[in-house]
C-alpha cells in the first residue's frame, strides 16, 4: 500500500472504525453476560451447593497448580536464563509449547503419559497403586501443564533483563548461590514474579480442555468452574451465565490487581 | 490524489469481499439435521440416498449428546430436523414451540462395556465393586439417564454411582474412555460397540434391566426454512429405508 | 613477594585474549589505564574469579586464588576481595545501609551488628545521612561512596575498583577524586583501579599499568612513562594529561 502524505483523514477514519469495531467485538459478549441474568439469579447460583463445590474445587486446583508451577517453574526459569546447558533452546521450546498447544491435545498427551496405558501410568499403577486420570490430582496436573509456562516465560524474561553483575557483586561479597537467589534475584524480579504467578493462576482457573480430557468431569472431584459452566449451558443456560459472571468477576479483579504491570500507557 | 485514498478503500473492499463470500455461494439447499451421537453411523448411511433423491440438496449433520442439541434448539440454533435419544430431551426442545409432533423411530439396548482384556466384570452386580472405575454419561445425557434408571431397577444404583469417575457429555465419550482402558466399565448402547472398537471392548449384558428400553424420537422443526425437505427426511428415517439402515447398525424397531 | 599480589593472567573470551603478568607489593595502589575494549574490565573479572583463567595463576598474600595447572580455582565468594563494579551495581531493593551490610550478613554477622558496622562505614565516607535511602534516591557521588563502603567493609586484602569515578559529573569529580585517594591511602589493601581517564589514574595511583589490546604495554609512574612513552597511546594520553 502506498503511504504518501496526502489526506491522512481517510486512513485515520478507517483505523478508527476498525478499532471501534474491535472494541465493540470485545465488549459486546461481556455486556451480553451482564444483561442476560438478574443479580438475584447470580446470587442464587453462587449460594447453590453444587456451585460452591465447583468454586471450592476450582480454587483448590488452581492454587495447587500455581504452587506447583512455582516450585518447578522457578528453578526452570533460572536454569533457562542463567545456566548454559546443552539443549537449552529445546527445553525452552518444550516449556513454551503448552501455551500454543490446543488444551485438548495437552489432555490427550497427559493421558498418553500418565493414563493407565501411558508411559508412566502403568508403572505408577502397578508399582505405587496410583491411578491418576479422573482424580483431583489429574485436574491439578492438567492445570499445571497449561499454566506453568506463563510463569516460566515471564520469570525467565525478567531474569534475562536482570544485570548479571548484580549477582556477581553479591558473589564477591561472599553470598552463596542460594543466598544470592533469595536476597538479590527474587527481590529484583518480584514484580514479574507476581505478574507471572497471577497469569499462571488465572490460566489454571480457566483451564477446560486438558482437564475434561485427562481428569474427566465429576462434581466435587474434577468438575471445576469452567466444566460446570459448560455443563450448565446444556441444562440451565441462565445458570451458565451466572457462573460465567462469577469467573468474569475473578478475572476483572485479577486485572485490577495487576494494572500498572501491563497497562503502563493511558 | 487518488493514491492515499486507495488504502482505506482497499480495506473496505476487502471486508465486503470477505462478507460477500459467505452469502454469495450458489444456491444449494441445505437440510440441517441435529441427531443424537449414537445415530452417527446409521444416519450417515442414509445421507447419500436422500441426496440422490433430492438433487441439489445437501444434508448437514450435527451429532452430539441430545441434551446439547436440545439446548441449542432452545437457544435458537438453525436446524430442520431433531432426532433425540430420549423423550425428555425432545420435550425440552419442544418447550421452545419450535418442534412439530415427534414420533418414535427406533429403540436400542443398554450394555456394560469393559476393556477387552479385563474379564473381571460378569454382570451388573460387579459394577458396585469397591475401587471399580465406572464411567457414565451425565444424568441429563439420555444414555446417562437410562443407565441410572437401569442401575436403580437392579438395586445397585447407590453403590455403582459411588464408583463413577467421570460424567461424559455423550455416549461416545464413555465408549472411548473404556476402549482406551482409562476406565474399567461403562454403560452404553449396544450399537456403540462399532466395528472399529469391537476388538478393544468386551460387552456384558445388563441382565435384569430389560424393561429399560431406550427409544429414539424424531421431529421436524416448525420454523424450518425447508419444511418439505425436513418432512421428507423424517419420513425417510421412520420409513422402510430408515428401518433397514438402522437395523443394519443394530438398532431395534420402534 | 609472597605478601603481595602475583598475577599471571591468560583469559580467552570469544575472539578476545587477555594475557599479562604483573606483581604488586603489599599496600600498592596501581591504576590500570587503557582504551575502551583493551581488556581492563576483564582483568578485574579475572582477579575476582568471575571469569576462569585459561592458564597462569593469581596468588594473593601467599594464598593461591587460582592456578588452572593445579586445578585450583577459588570461587568469588572464597576470595574475599572487595570489588566496586562499574556503575556500582548497588542492590536496588535494599537501603544504602543494607547494601553495605550485605557482605557481613553473607558472612554470618548478625543483622543488627552488620547494620551498625555499615552505618559506621557510611559515616566514615561522609554519607551517614543516606543510610535509609534506596539507591535510586542517591546522587552519583553518594552512590559511589555507598559502593565503596560495600567493597571495603570486610577489609579485603585486594580492592578492585572498576571506573570508580566515571559515573560522576565534572563538578563533583575533582573532589571525589581527592577523597577517594585519601580513603584508599588509609586502606591497608592492595588497590587496583581501572580507569580510562588518565587524570583519575594519575591522581589515585602511585603507578600506572597500561593495557592495550589485551597486553600489558607499559608500567611505571606517570613521569617515567611521560619521559619515555613506549607506545603511541601512552604518548597521546600522557601528553594531554
From TrEMBL, chain A:
What CDD domains does its record include?
A: TM_PBP2
Q: Which SUPFAM superfamilies match?
A: MetI-like
Keyword S-adenosyl-L-methionine in annotation: no
Q: Which Gene3D superfamilies match?
A: MetI-like
Q: What does this protein do?
A: Part of the binding-protein-dependent transport system for molybdenum; probably responsible for the translocation of the substrate across the membrane.
Task: From the record, give the transmembrane residue ranges.
Answer: 12-35, 55-81, 93-114, 134-159, 180-204, 239-258
Q: What is the protein's membrane topology class?
A: Multi-pass membrane protein
UniProt-recorded name of the protein: Molybdenum transport system permease
* Compartments it resides in: Cell membrane
TrEMBL record, chain B:
Source organism, top-level taxon: Bacteria
Pfam families from the UniProt entry: SBP_bac_11
Name the UniProt key words of this record, in alphabetical order.
Metal-binding, Signal
Q: Which SUPFAM superfamilies match?
A: Periplasmic binding protein-like II
Q: Signal sequence span per UniProt?
A: 1-27
Write down the PROSITE patterns for this protein, in alphabetical order: PROKAR_LIPOPROTEIN
**What is the name attached to this protein's record?**
Molybdate ABC transporter substrate-binding protein
Its source organism is Nannocystis bainbridge
Q: What broad taxonomic lineage does this protein's source fall under?
A: Bacteria, Pseudomonadati, Myxococcota, Polyangia, Nannocystales
UniProtKB/TrEMBL annotation, chain C:
UniProt KW keywords: ATP-binding, Nucleotide-binding, Transport
What Gene Ontology molecular function terms does this protein carry?
A: ATP binding
- What PROSITE patterns does this protein's entry cite? ABC_TRANSPORTER_1, ABC_TRANSPORTER_2
Q: Which InterPro entries does the protein's record reference?
A: AAA+_ATPase, ABC_SmlMolc_Importer, ABC_transporter-like_ATP-bd, ABC_transporter-like_CS, P-loop_NTPase
**Residue ranges of every copy of the ABC transporter domain listed in the record:** 1-238
**Domain of life here?**
Bacteria
Give the PANTHER family listed for this entry: SPERMIDINE/PUTRESCINE IMPORT ATP-BINDING PROTEIN POTA, SPERMIDINE_PUTRESCINE IMPORT ATP-BINDING PROTEIN POTA
Its recorded name reads ATP-binding cassette domain-containing protein
Q: Which organism is it from?
A: Nannocystis bainbridge
Amino acid at each position: 500500500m502506498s503511504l504518501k502524505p496526502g489526506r491522512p483523514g481517510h486512513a485515520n477514519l478507517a483505523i478508527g472504525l476498525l478499532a471501534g469495531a474491535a472494541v465493540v467485538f470485545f465488549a459486546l459478549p461481556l455486556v451480553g453476560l451482564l444483561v442476560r441474568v438478574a443479580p438475584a439469579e447470580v446470587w442464587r447460583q453462587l449460594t447453590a451447593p453444587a456451585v460452591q463445590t465447583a468454586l471450592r474445587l476450582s480454587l483448590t486446583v488452581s492454587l495447587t497448580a500455581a504452587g506447583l508451577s512455582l516450585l518447578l517453574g522457578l528453578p526452570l526459569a533460572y536454569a533457562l536464563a542463567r545456566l548454559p546447558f546443552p539443549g537449552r533452546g529445546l527445553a525452552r521450546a518444550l516449556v513454551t509449547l503448552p501455551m500454543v498447544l490446543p488444551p485438548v491435545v495437552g489432555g490427550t498427551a497427559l493421558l498418553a503419559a500418565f493414563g493407565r496405558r501411558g508411559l508412566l501410568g502403568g508403572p505408577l499403577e502397578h508399582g505405587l497403586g496410583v491411578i491418576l486420570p479422573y482424580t483431583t490430582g489429574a485436574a491439578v496436573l492438567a492445570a499445571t501443564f497449561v499454566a506453568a509456562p506463563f510463569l516460566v516465560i515471564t520469570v525467565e524474561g525478567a531474569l534475562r533483563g536482570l544485570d548479571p553483575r548484580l549477582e556477581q557483586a553479591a558473589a564477591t561479597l561472599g553470598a552463596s548461590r542460594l543466598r544470592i537467589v533469595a536476597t538479590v534475584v527474587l527481590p529484583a524480579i518480584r514484580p514479574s514474579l507476581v505478574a507471572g504467578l497471577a497469569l499462571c493462576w488465572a490460566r489454571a482457573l480457566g483451564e477446560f480442555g486438558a482437564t475434561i480430557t485427562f481428569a474427566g468431569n465429576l462434581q466435587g472431584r474434577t468438575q471445576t468452574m469452567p466444566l460446570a459452566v459448560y455443563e450448565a449451558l446444556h441444562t440451565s443456560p441462565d445458570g451458565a451465565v451466572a457462573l460465567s459472571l462469577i469467573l468474569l468477576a475473578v478475572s476483572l479483579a485479577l486485572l485490577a490487581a495487576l494494572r500498572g504491570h501491563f497497562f503502563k500507557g493511558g | 490524489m487518488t493514491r492515499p485514498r486507495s488504502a482505506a478503500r482497499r480495506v473496505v473492499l476487502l471486508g465486503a469481499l470477505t462478507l460477500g463470500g459467505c452469502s454469495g455461494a450458489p444456491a444449494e439447499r441445505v437440510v440441517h439435521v441435529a441427531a443424537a451421537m449414537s445415530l452417527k453411523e446409521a444416519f450417515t448411511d442414509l445421507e447419500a440416498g436422500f441426496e440422490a433423491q433430492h438433487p441439489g440438496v445437501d444434508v448437514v449433520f450435527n451429532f452430539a449428546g441430545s441434551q446439547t442439541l436440545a439446548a441449542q434448539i432452545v437457544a435458537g440454533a438453525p436446524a430442520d430436523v431433531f432426532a433425540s435419544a430420549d423423550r425428555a430431551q425432545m420435550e425440552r426442545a419442544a418447550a421452545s414451540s419450535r418442534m412439530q409432533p415427534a414420533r418414535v423411530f427406533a429403540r436400542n439396548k443398554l450394555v456394560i462395556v469393559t476393556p477387552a482384556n479385563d474379564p473381571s466384570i460378569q454382570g451388573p452386580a460387579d459394577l458396585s465393586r469397591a475401587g471399580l472405575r465406572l464411567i457414565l454419561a451425565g444424568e441429563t445425557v439420555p444414555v446417562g439417564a437410562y443407565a441410572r434408571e437401569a442401575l436403580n431397577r437392579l438395586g445397585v444404583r447407590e453403590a455403582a454411582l459411588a464408583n463413577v469417575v467421570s460424567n461424559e457429555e455423550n455416549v461416545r465419550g464413555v465408549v472411548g474412555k473404556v476402549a482406551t482402558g482409562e476406565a474399567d466399565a461403562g454403560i452404553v448402547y449396544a450399537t456403540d460397540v462399532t466395528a472399529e472398537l469391537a476388538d478393544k471392548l468386551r460387552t456384558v449384558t445388563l441382565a435384569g434391566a430389560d424393561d429399560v428400553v431406550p427409544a429414539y424420537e424424531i421431529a421436524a422443526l416448525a420454523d424450518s426454512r425447508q419444511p418439505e425437505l425436513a418432512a421428507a427426511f423424517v419420513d425417510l428415517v421412520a420409513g422402510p429405508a430408515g428401518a433397514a439402515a438402522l437395523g443394519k447398525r443394530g438398532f431395534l424397531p420402534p | 613477594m609472597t605478601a603481595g599480589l602475583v598475577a599471571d593472567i591468560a583469559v580467552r573470551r570469544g575472539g578476545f585474549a587477555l594475557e599479562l603478568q604483573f606483581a604488586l607489593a603489599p599496600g600498592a595502589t596501581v591504576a590500570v589505564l587503557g582504551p575502551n575494549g583493551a581488556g581492563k574490565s576483564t582483568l578485574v573479572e579475572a582477579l575476582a574469579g568471575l571469569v576462569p583463567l585459561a592458564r597462569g595463576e593469581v596468588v594473593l598474600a601467599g594464598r593461591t586464588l587460582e592456578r588452572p595447572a593445579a586445578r585450583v580455582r577459588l570461587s568469588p565468594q572464597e576470595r574475599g576481595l572487595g570489588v566496586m563494579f562499574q556503575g556500582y551495581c548497588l542492590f536496588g531493593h535494599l537501603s544504602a545501609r543494607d547494601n553495605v551490610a550485605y557482605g557481613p550478613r553473607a558472612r554470618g554477622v548478625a543483622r543488627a551488628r552488620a547494620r551498625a558496622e555499615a552505618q559506621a562505614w557510611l559515616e566514615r565516607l561522609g554519607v551517614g545521612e543516606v543510610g535509609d535511602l534506596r539507591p535510586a534516591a542517591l546522587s552519583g557521588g553518594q552512590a559511589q561512596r555507598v559502593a565503596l563502603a560495600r567493597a571495603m567493609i570486610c577489609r579485603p586484602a585486594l580492592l578492585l575498583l572498576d571506573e570508580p569515578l566515571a559515573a560522576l559529573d565534572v563538578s563533583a569529580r575533582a573532589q571525589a577524586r581527592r577523597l577517594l585517594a585519601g580513603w584508599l591511602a588509609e586502606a591497608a589493601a592492595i588497590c587496583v583501579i581501572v580507569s580510562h581517564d588518565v587524570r583519575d589514574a594519575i591522581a589515585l595511583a602511585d603507578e600506572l599499568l597500561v593495557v592495550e589490546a589485551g597486553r600489558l604495554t607499559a608500567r611505571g609512574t606517570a613521569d617515567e612513562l611521560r619521559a619515555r612513552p613506549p607506545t603511541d597511546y601512552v604518548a597521546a594520553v600522557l601528553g594531554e594529561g
